[in-house]
Specification:
Elements lengths: L4 E4 L4 E5 L1 H4 L1 H12 L4 E5 L8 E7 L2 E7 L5 E5 L14 E3 L2 E3 L6 E3 L4 E3 L20 E5 L2 E5 L7 H5 L2 H9 L6 E3 L4 E5 L3 H8 L5 H4 L1 H11 L10 E7 L2 E6 L13 H18 L1 H7 L2 E6 L3 E5 L4 E10 L2 E11 L4 H14 L7 H14 L8 E3 L15 H15 L24 H8 L1
Antiparallel strand pairs: 1-2, 2-21, 3-12, 4-5, 4-7, 5-6, 8-9, 9-10, 11-12, 13-20, 14-20, 15-16, 16-17, 17-18, 18-19, 19-20
This protein binds FE2/S2 (inorganic) cluster and fe (ii) ion.
The site of FE2/S2 (inorganic) cluster has 10 residues, from loops.
């Protein structure tokens, strides 16, 4: 048995040792066995709209430059000068055909090739001029760009396993393409990174931790439909990915009421999407999903907009978080304003959800100082039910079992549950040729 996870199917109970959240040796192992081996999210292609656009991002603590090069190709470069190591780019974002290192002036184009160095005669004609270094692998799925530092990593589409379908459900909501709204929500939490992974798919805490938010929603929209939260499911998507899904509830369970014009705009689009993809797929699309893509990417699609969240450990008790809002590119100004307002109201720095979550996670971390008295956290909810729902904790156990397999080598069997109901199996009807041509015309 691993020293970090108790997975007792007879009781049943699932426990995680709090040392996994506090021990620096665990973070070291996570860096080696998880962050150096899996696919890690860097950004979305729609953040780089023009040729030569770039963003600087950290991926697992490594500074990177995320570029659309002069030919329009996505590139990822280590943000370190091959000369003696100065950080090549110290801007957060910009547009540049070339980058010149401020230390001694070596210059590179955005396809990674060195183009000049001051006084290069001192190097001789045969000198092998180094270019920029790239991570071992870069690949994308529906515009989500991932890197891996492991040349042997499996292909991204295989790695994503069942999570691909849920990315499709997010990305098919637009007829012209989803886009990341410019601007980034950056914050930090004095807690272990895995606590936010858990929290991002935790339906159980919503009503208690976010009571004020629900009071506001009830005041703005009337009662929340009875049983709305129960019409949900928690699903294991393979490879440590998991989702908590909710079925559609009227024009959405969360968010402030839409204006009549915005409602009509959304309804008309969904009617066209039904024509294109069929009811089974669009019914699913119309619900909600909180998705973990192992290890540290979260997509939260709660009708009012899609949050893309990247969670980075810094020390065992400190993480950095980056959030973006993903919206249908064709949204009119009213829907965009509404989504951004919802983002700020729920997720924002002064919002009614994120500050509560941060407080909850930071108190967990502080209280882990009592781990000699109380070494184990409990994550057993819904183990003995046939069909776990979003207020159960299967989604977290899926993450932890994969974590445990990578960190300790212990493979635990999947949890047996009933197959999901027909609703969750609805597939996309591929549009007929003529329909595609008409839609693209
Ligand atoms: S470290 Fe960049 S040019 Fe010297
Ligand atoms: Fe929350």
């Amino acid at each position: 048995m691993s020293e970090y996870v108790i997975d007792d199917r007879d009781m049943p109970k699932f426990r995680v040792n709090r040392a996994a959240m506090t021990d620096p040796a665990v973070l070291e192992r996570e860096r080696e066995r998880i962050f150096d081996r899996t696919w890690l999210y860097i950004g979305h292609e729609t953040e780089l709209t023009k040729r030569n656009d770039f963003l600087t991002r950290n991926v697992a603590g490594r500074p990177m430059i995320f570029f659309r090069d002069h030919e329009g190709k996505i590139q990822v470069w280590a943000n370190s000068c091959p000369h003696r190591g100065a950080m090549l780019c110290r801007e957060k974002q910009g547009n540049a055909r070339f980058m010149t290192c401020f230390y001694h002036g070596w210059a590179f184009n955005n396809a990674g090739k060195m183009v000049s160095m001051p006084s290069d005669e001192a190097y001789g004609p045969d000198f092998d001029r180094p270019g920029l270094a790239a991570p071992a692998r870069v690949d994308s799925y529906r515009g989500f760009v991932f890197v891996s530092f492991d040349p042997e990593v499996e292909e991204l589409v295989e790695y994503l396993a069942g999570a691909r379908e849920y990315i499709d459900l997010v990305m098919d909501q637009s007829e012209v393409g989803m886009r990341v709204v410019p601007g980034t929500h950056e914050y930090s939490v004095k807690a272990n990174w895995k606590l936010l992974v858990e929290n991002s798919v935790d339906g159980y805490h919503a009503i208690t931790t976010h009571q004020r938010y629900f009071e506001m929603i009830v005041a703005a929209r009337g009662e929340i439909p009875a049983g709305a939260l129960a019409r949900s499911s928690s699903l294991d998507l393979g490879n440590g990915h998991a989702v908590a899904v909710g079925e559609p509830v009227g024009d959405g369970l969360l968010g402030r009421p839409l204006s009549e014009a915005a409602k009509a705009e959304r309804a008309a689009r969904f009617a066209r999407l039904r024509e294109r993809y069929g009811d089974a797929w669009v019914d699913r699309m119309d619900g909600t999903r909180n998705l973990i893509i192992f290890p540290n990417l979260v997509l939260i699609d709660l009708v009012m907009g899609v949050v893309v969240r990247k969670i980075d450990p810094v020390t065992p008790d400190y993480m950095e978080v980056t959030g973006w809002e993903l919206v249908p590119a064709e949204d009119g100004p009213e829907l965009t304003r509404h989504r951004l307002d919802d983002y700020l109201t729920f997720w924002g720095p002064g919002g009614l959800a994120t500050p509560d979550d941060v407080e909850a996670l930071e108190t967990c971390q502080r209280s882990f100082a009592t781990r000699a008295e109380l070494p184990w956290s409990d994550i057993s909810r819904g183990m003995n039910t046939a069909s776990p729902v979003s207020t159960d904790e299967l989604q977290m156990r899926v993450f932890w079992r994969r974590w445990n397999a990578l960190v300790t080598g212990e493979q635990l069997p999947d949890e047996p549950h009933d197959p999901p109901s027909a609703f969750y199996l609805g597939q996309r009807r591929e549009p007929a040729e003529g329909v595609v041509a008409a839609a693209d015309a």
